[in-house]
Specification:
Elements: E1 2-6, H1 17-32, E2 39-43, E3 48-50, H2 64-67, E4 86-90, E5 93-95, H3 99-104, E6 107-111, E7 115-117, H4 129-134, H5 140-148, E8 155-156, H6 157-163, E9 168-170, H7 172-187, H8 191-204, H9 209-224, H10 227-238
Parallel strand pairs: 1-2, 2-4, 3-5, 4-6, 5-7, 6-9
Antiparallel strand pairs: 7-8
Helix pairs in contact: 8-9
């Protein structure tokens, strides 16, 4: 289990121009490391998870044409094509672009003092990518209220849990232990089966039901030829821990 920490506590973990370069590098390194099976992303300190882009040091790209493309935003695992499970441990306020992590993570945990705020329109910016992602998790009206009020309306951890943005809430001192407990549970299982399961579920959010089921069946058929199935059955019958094969990057195509 790897822990990726947004670490600019003095700036409430706002994403700077340097972090804009570092985050894609970190995600790609974690994706490429066969010893990493689950990634937990959190923020430094006790007050803020991530307050979005740092307005005093805005993320930049050297290529103006690249800056016009969606791929120029590469802060979350999903934005970097990561195929391993990601758990977000929201340790404080999440503002603006910080909401990307809630939208894109597989499991979202939050400390009970966390708050969720979208301040884009208050400074003349467009709230689009984060609310589009969040609308796949929670009711449209709740997303609209968050995005259109510019931070006047904010979600408590309790309300975010009620609406489905957050999967569990707990005291801050229990947040990382719970994230690591879930991560360890996931990491015990076949990396290929986990990755294919995750891929099928995410695809179902974008496809019509019949196509999503066909895509899920495709993953099932692909896994049927994988040695982890025979190993899993043997380990169960022999009452021992399975010895899974490391996942090949092409296993989740």
């Amino acid at each position: 289990v790897a822990v990726l920490t947004l670490s600019r506590e003095d700036r409430r973990n706002a994403i700077s121009s340097m972090m804009n370069l570092e985050l894609p590098q970190a995600w790609r390194a974690l994706e490429a490391d066969p010893t990493v099976r689950v990634i937990v992303v959190t923020g430094a300190g006790q007050k803020a998870f991530c307050t979005g882009a740092d307005l005093a040091d805005l993320p930049k790209t050297e290529d103006p044409e690249f800056a016009r493309k969606l791929a120029s935003i590469g802060w979350t695992g999903r934005q970097n094509g990561v195929t391993k499970p990601v758990i977000a441990a929201i340790n404080g306020i999440a503002v603006g672009a910080g909401l990307h992590f809630a939208a894109d993570s597989d499991i979202v945990l939050a400390a009970d003092h966390a708050q969720f705020i979208d301040s884009h329109v208050a400074v003349g910016l467009i709230a689009a990518l984060e609310p589009i992602g969040l609308a796949r998790r929670m009711p449209l009206g709740a997303v609209m209220k968050l995005a259109l009020t510019g931070g006047d309306e904010r979600l408590s951890a309790q309300e975010a849990w009620r609406l489905g943005m957050v999967d569990e809430i707990m005291p801050l001192d229990a947040l990382m232990p719970r994230a690591m407990e879930l991560a360890a549970s996931i990491a015990r299982h076949s990396p290929t089966a986990v990755a294919r399961t995750r891929a099928a579920i995410w695809a179902s959010k974008e496809l019509p039901l019949s196509e999503a089921l066909e895509d899920g069946w495709r993953h099932i058929l692909a896994q049927n030829n994988h040695p982890d199935i025979a190993e899993g059955v043997a380990a169960f019958l022999e009452k021992r821990a399975p010895r899974w094969r490391d996942r090949d990057p092409g296993d989740v195509a």
